[in-house]
From TrEMBL, chains A, B:
This is Ribonuclease J. Residues 29-231 form the Metallo-beta-lactamase domain. The lineage of its organism: Bacteria, Bacillati, Bacillota, Clostridia, Eubacteriales. PANTHER family: RIBONUCLEASE J. NCBIfam families: MG423. Pfam families: Lactamase_B, RMMBL, RNase_J_b_CASP, RNase_J_C. CDD domains: RNaseJ_MBL-fold.
Amino acid sequence: MTAPVRRPGKKDGKGKLKIIPLGGLEQIGMNITAFEYEDSIIVVDCGLAFPGDDMLGIDLVIPDVTYLKQNFDKVKGFVITHGHEDHIGALPYILQQLNVPVYGTKLTIALIEHKLKEHNLMKNTKRKVMKHGQSVSLGSFRVEFIKTNHSIQDAAALAIFSPVGTVIHTGDFKIDYTPVFGDSIDLQRFAELGKKGVLALLADSTNATRPGFTMSERTVGKTFDSIFSEHVNQRIIVATFASNVDRVQQIVNTAYKYGRKVVVEGRSMVTVMEIASEHGYIKVPEGTLIDIENLKNYPPEKTVLITTGSQGESMAALSRMAASIHKKVSIMPGDVVILSSTPIPGNEKAVSNVVNELSMKGAQVICQDTHVSGHACQEDLKLIYSLIHPKFAIPVHGEYRHRMAQKELAEFMGVPKDNAILVSSGDVVALDEDSCEVIDHVACGGILVDGLGVGDVGNIVLRDRQNLAQNGIIVVVLTLEKHSNQLLAGPDIVSRGFVYVRESEDLLEEAHGVVSDALQDCLDRHVSDWGKIKNIMKDSLSDFLWKRMKRNPVILPIIMEV
Amino acid sequence: MTAPVRRPGKKDGKGKLKIIPLGGLEQIGMNITAFEYEDSIIVVDCGLAFPGDDMLGIDLVIPDVTYLKQNFDKVKGFVITHGHEDHIGALPYILQQLNVPVYGTKLTIALIEHKLKEHNLMKNTKRKVMKHGQSVSLGSFRVEFIKTNHSIQDAAALAIFSPVGTVIHTGDFKIDYTPVFGDSIDLQRFAELGKKGVLALLADSTNATRPGFTMSERTVGKTFDSIFSEHVNQRIIVATFASNVDRVQQIVNTAYKYGRKVVVEGRSMVTVMEIASEHGYIKVPEGTLIDIENLKNYPPEKTVLITTGSQGESMAALSRMAASIHKKVSIMPGDVVILSSTPIPGNEKAVSNVVNELSMKGAQVICQDTHVSGHACQEDLKLIYSLIHPKFAIPVHGEYRHRMAQKELAEFMGVPKDNAILVSSGDVVALDEDSCEVIDHVACGGILVDGLGVGDVGNIVLRDRQNLAQNGIIVVVLTLEKHSNQLLAGPDIVSRGFVYVRESEDLLEEAHGVVSDALQDCLDRHVSDWGKIKNIMKDSLSDFLWKRMKRNPVILPIIMEV
């Protein structure tokens, strides 16, 4: 008999390391992954996602952590790889449901603390600042923070030492041999761990479809230098990601070199600058930074504005300047605007609109060579695989096609086909020395945050919003006498988002006739079930509008009882 | 005295050629430009625009032609450059308001006729098929159709001969020395006209920001050949633009070469294929085309599907296949899907979703080198400028940044700075031998089409839809006695798209209390103005919800009178 003998107790994952991604695999965003061994759980990252186009009115999306709440007594803490929103943004919401300690490097913890303050959670949340190279024991696990490079400082990969073996989670990373601040990624440590034997690698898939190497952040500094040297007589405005402190550092350095004063504008830009300065992650030469109020005291060609809005976000500083609704800065003909970013998929049109508006005001917009990615491309990933040489590969951080590309790359780098697996959020991956397989699935998904409401908007409400958005609403209201069912008032028709009422009087009159006839027919036939009356009015009006207009508004019949 | 003497009668454009773009300059789409000389007007193109993200529920946008209607007796006809929707799509709507003859090349007229049939306008619309090289006299104008290349066949530039000089409108064009069908662009004619003297050039700005030359359509054929030769054991599915008949021809040719049968799928793809075949613009070898019903009779590796959906449009054939809701085609592991297109800005996310879905079903998705643009890049534009050498340049067909790029290019090619002008839709440009200036502005804009309604949805209705989409609606309804203002029923609260009613009972109860209190207060104070009562209820509820939820639903108070 050659069939494998299923060892008892293995099916439920006993004695195995379980890896349970609770988000981050269907999209870029909402990264959170639980590692469980017997009575210990640690959670890597706790990010939010920005709402999709169909999530009307939603501000942000946070992960469903039902599984963690059910196993609360096992959860030893959050270990955070870096301070981007898609890795820390859900913490203030989740910590209210799951109060456990948070571990991260200095800048990461500083950014988290800013959020905790906003949510009044500082007092009740334990934080521990970790240094690269340091490790912490959490139940059955020991977690070591390993230096990496990324588009935010202080990013870390995690070596997770478990009873069944070592797992490396890269976090978001790139390989930058010449970083602007601090050290290069700790390739030696990856090699050392690889040499000792790594059971599984969870690596960043964002750029796994892109050939070649990711350029050093420092190359952008060279571009800034040449742009500044070519435009000595013009004001320069640079829009970039607030969290990319190294980018801001390079702009500041170039401004200083060319004798320009620097103004920082945009709420998140100001916040990150403050936090980064306070903790020593950015160094601004004395006297270089000026307040926006003092901008008018310097000739334009002696100033640089560093601003948010590089993604065309409608309320960000650059968009407000472009639309002439910024209170303190007006775009002037001759201004040079550098968009130091590439549009995140979905933002292309918004960015394009801002570029048009800036151009119309006479600004010169420069995009070329002013951005590099923060994620490893294919050749970088190959280097990581060759250093770590994992037995199993579980690509993370990316849409299916990105993770698929990493799986193919892993196979190319010698990981056996069956050992490189693509999983979905909620999958329970069970690992031991010999096997890596999905054995179960737990609840997962996105909880919608709308204003102060968390989770009170779901699919039904969203579908209503989509219907309302498409064709508006028609309210049909009437008053009936309680017992006799005699019509006392109405039916009245009121609409919102349907048609111009003044220009569509005939149509609305006809619609009123249709509803009145349907109602009268019900009353004549002594239909006493009001639900039925409502449905009959609704259907007849709906039919009429579809035939007449090919439109499908939400119809809301209301019967008042007197 | 050196100031220019303003000659009498010149200010109102008398004796001048007026060029009046009524659309197409704020976006790519809705191209329509009037040329007016004394009592003659001709109109170049009559396109539609697709709705922006903020135009909720809108199907398409057509130009406001009030100016043409006011000058109806002058309008001699529409001259159409090519058969794309953004150049012909509004014709069936506008011809109902402005019944004048339509001139175009054979395929262009055939595509227009298909639309006229759908709108029952064939009998009442005069059409005239023009050949390249032919010209037609229309009032004071003579219009010559000049062969160009584009991503649809039978595209034409127009030489418009007017009493003040010759104007060339390129339409949408590229330079293809080796087109798949028919001749290359008639560069000789452009040179000949340029030699004689061209007053103004209106050229396509779509790719004016792109350096280099646009590749020949034929290069895509080579890519198809190599993909087909590498995947002889797999089914191949190619998604592309329905109107790109040359692309389809190349897919058919490659399929035939490799002994595959071809299935055409997607409504617009089938329509265009029929029209193109009927008029001889595509040649399919006998027996190559099979019906989709017969697909099952051939081994997958002996078939090719040509389909719509290359832009990720949710209802197109490819998207339905990817989502497993296509009735006749299921994606199989190993299928090769070629996306022969690049995403139009704004469609990136939708395309990416389709790629993910296809990958998850085991298909291999290929995008690289499978598309070329239909628009001239910078070096092509330079060639056109050097052949035509116009006195004035009025860049068209593009967003501001594209037209700005062409203006800069025109200056580089020797057009004096003040002779290259950027105009807005509605601007009246007056031209004579010596000058080109904006002298007036006429009504213009987009008319929204929603279902069968044309123009009955405008800004107020759209704003309502946006508000409804963000936070839903709350209807507050109550019944008062006519004279006594005594409350007979209500206030009742009904909501749609606001919150899960079942999970938010407490909140809705509180909201009810707030409205009831506000109402009672009005009644106690004998407020008799119902408008005032409604506003007080609305404001108090609105305040409550903002404080409590940070949300702003539409609130619709209704008072019934008994």
